[in-house]
C-alpha cells in the first residue's frame, strides 16, 4: 500500500500539530509556510487540559511544559479589585507558556516525526480534488490538503467555504515583559476588568510574564499600544503600574481586532480547513489554539478508520458543534467584558460572581477544557 500524502498550508500551531498527527500515523507530510522563517509573536498562551492531551498524544508534552507555568488559581477581578472567580474557566490541568516556545516545540516535534517544512512557500489556492497551488504556480498533489492558513485563509476562500468573517469590534494587544517578584506567583494569574478594559498578568516562563490589554475598538486611547500609550492604561489599573512600566514604548506586540470566522463547511472533497481558517474566534476563553490542536488530533483519528472523504464527513459532524459552542461563549464573554454600561459595573460583578457558582453554567463554560476526541474508538465514531 502506497504512503498517503498530505500538503498543509500554514506552519502555525494548527498546521504543525496536524502535520505531526498525520506523520506519526504514517503519512508523508509537507507544510508550506508563507514567511521566510518559522516564528510566532512573543506573547503567552493558555494550554488547557484538552490541548495538553494533544501534546501528550504527539509526544510534545514534556518539552512544552518544561518551561511553562502550572496554574492553580486563575483570578478574575473587577473594577474594585475584588476576586470574582478562581475556578470557572479551569477544568483539569492548566499551563501558561511562552507562545514562541510552544511553536518551536511543535515545529521540532513535526520535524522529528518526518514532516517537511518549506518556508517562503505561500499557498494561493486549493482544490477539492486534492492539490495546493503556491503563488509561483507550482501545484502540489496530495491525498489530503489542509488549510491552516489563518482567519484570512486563501485556502478557505478558494474552496468557497467562507460564510462570513465578522469584526467583533473589540480586541487586544499581547506583550511579554521580564518577570519580577511583583508578578503573581504560586500558580496564580490575574485578569482584571475596569469598564470596557481588561488587563491580564500571566506568568508563562521562568523569565517572562505575559500581559494582555483588551478593550473595544472605540476606545481609541486603549488601542494605542504600538507605540504604547502607557498613561491611559495606568489610569485604569494604577495598582498594576509595575507591569505596565515594563512594557516597552515600542513593543513587539500591537493591538489587533478580534474576528469570528464562520464557514459554510470545514471540508470539501479531499480538502479541509483547520484552526482560525475554519473557526477563528476571540481568545477570551483561551481556547482558540486549544480547539485547533484538538481538532487536528480528531482529524487523524478519523483518517485511521475511514477513507479521506468519509473521514472528513465524520470529523466535521463530530467536532464542529464542540468548537462552535466555544466560539459562541467566547463571544459572549467578550461582550460582557467590554460592552457593559459603566453605571452598572457592580451589577456585572454580582452577575459574574453568581454565575460562577452555578454548576450548570460552569459546566457549559468549562466543557471544552475537558473534551477529548475519540473518533478512533469504534463505540464513539459515527458516520453522519
Question: Which outline best applies?
Answer: globular
Radius of gyration over alpha carbons? 21 Å
What number is the mean pLDDT? 94
User: What is the topology, as strand order, of the major beta sheet?
Assistant: 6-5-14-15-16-13-17
Low-confidence segments, given as residue ranges, are none
Tell me the β content: 25-35%
**What is the count of distinct domains?**
1
Helix/strand structural class: alpha/beta
The CATH homologous superfamily: FAD/NAD(P)-binding domain
Assembly state of the chains shown: single chain
**Given this structure, which CATH class is correct?**
Alpha Beta
**Distance N to C terminus:** 28 Å
Largest sheet: 7 strands, mixed
Total of DSSP H or I helical runs spanning 4+ residues: 13
Kindly state the percentage of residues in helix: 25-40%
CATH topology: FAD/NAD(P)-binding domain
In total, how many beta strands?
Answer: 19
Question: What this model shows, in words?
Answer:
This protein is an alpha/beta fold and 384 residues long. It has one domain: FAD/NAD(P)-binding domain (3-Layer(bba) Sandwich). It contains 13 helices and 19 strands. The protein has helices at residues 13-23, 49-58, 61-65, 99-112, 154-158, 220-223, 230-236, 241-245, 276-279, 288-305, 308-338, 345-355, 359-366; strands at 5-9, 28-32, 44-48, 69-70, 73-77, 83-85, 94-98, 116-118, 123-127, 131-134, 139-141, 144-147, 162-178, 188-194, 197-205, 208-216, 255-263, 267-268, 271-273. α1 runs parallel beside α4, α1 (13-23) runs parallel beside α10 and α2 (49-58) crosses α10.
Amino acid at each position: 500500500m502506497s504512503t498517503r500524502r498530505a500538503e498543509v498550508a500554514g506552519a502555525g500551531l494548527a498546521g504543525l500539530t496536524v502535520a505531526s498527527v498525520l506523520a506519526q500515523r504514517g503519512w508523508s507530510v509537507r507544510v508550506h509556510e508563507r514567511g521566510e522563517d518559522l516564528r510566532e509573536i512573543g506573547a503567552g498562551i493558555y494550554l488547557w487540559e484538552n490541548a495538553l492531551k494533544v501534546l501528550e498524544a504527539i509526544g510534545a508534552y514534556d518539552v512544552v511544559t518544561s518551561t511553562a507555568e502550572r496554574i492553580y488559581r486563575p483570578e478574575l477581578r473587577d473594577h474594585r479589585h475584588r476576586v470574582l472567580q478562581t475556578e470557572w474557566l479551569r477544568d483539569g490541568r492548566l499551563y501558561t507558556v511562552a507562545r514562541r516556545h510552544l511553536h518551536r516545540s511543535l515545529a521540532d516535534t513535526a520535524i522529528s516525526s518526518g514532516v517537511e517544512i518549506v518556508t517562503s512557500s505561500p499557498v494561493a489556492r486549493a482544490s477539492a480534488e486534492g492539490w495546493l497551488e503556491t503563488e509561483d504556480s507550482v501545484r502540489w498533489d496530495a491525498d489530503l490538503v489542509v488549510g491552516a492558513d489563518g482567519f484570512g485563509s486563501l485556502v478557505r476562500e478558494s474552496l468557497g467555504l467562507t460564510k462570513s468573517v465578522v469584526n467583533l469590534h473589540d480586541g487586544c494587544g499581547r506583550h511579554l515583559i521580564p518577570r519580577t517578584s511583583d508578578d503573581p506567583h504560586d500558580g496564580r494569574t490575574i485578569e482584571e476588568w475596569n469598564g470596557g478594559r481588561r488587563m491580564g498578568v500571566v506568568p508563562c516562563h521562568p523569565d517572562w510574564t505575559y500581559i494582555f490589554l483588551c478593550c473595544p475598538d472605540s476606545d481609541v486611547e486603549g488601542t494605542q499600544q504600538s507605540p504604547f500609550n502607557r498613561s491611559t492604561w495606568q489610569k485604569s489599573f494604577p495598582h498594576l503600574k509595575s507591569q505596565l512600566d515594563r512594557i516597552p514604548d515600542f513593543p513587539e506586540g500591537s493591538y489587533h481586532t478580534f474576528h469570528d470566522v464562520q464557514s459554510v463547511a470545514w471540508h470539501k472533497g479531499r480538502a479541509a480547513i483547520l484552526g482560525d481558517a475554519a473557526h477563528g474566534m476571540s481568545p477570551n476563553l483561551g481556547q482558540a489554539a486549544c480547539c485547533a490542536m484538538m481538532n487536528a488530533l480528531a482529524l487523524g483519528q478519523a483518517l485511521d478508520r475511514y477513507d479521506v472523504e468519509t473521514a472528513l464527513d465524520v470529523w466535521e459532524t463530530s467536532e464542529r458543534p464542540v468548537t462552535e459552542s466555544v466560539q459562541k461563549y467566547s463571544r459572549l464573554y467578550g461582550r460582557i467584558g467590554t460592552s457593559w454600561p459603566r453605571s452598572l459595573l457592580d451589577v456585572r460583578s454580582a452577575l459574574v460572581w453568581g454565575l460562577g457558582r452555578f454548576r450548570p453554567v460552569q459546566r457549559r463554560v468549562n466543557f471544552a477544557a475537558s473534551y477529548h476526541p475519540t473518533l478512533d474508538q469504534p463505540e464513539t465514531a459515527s458516520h453522519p
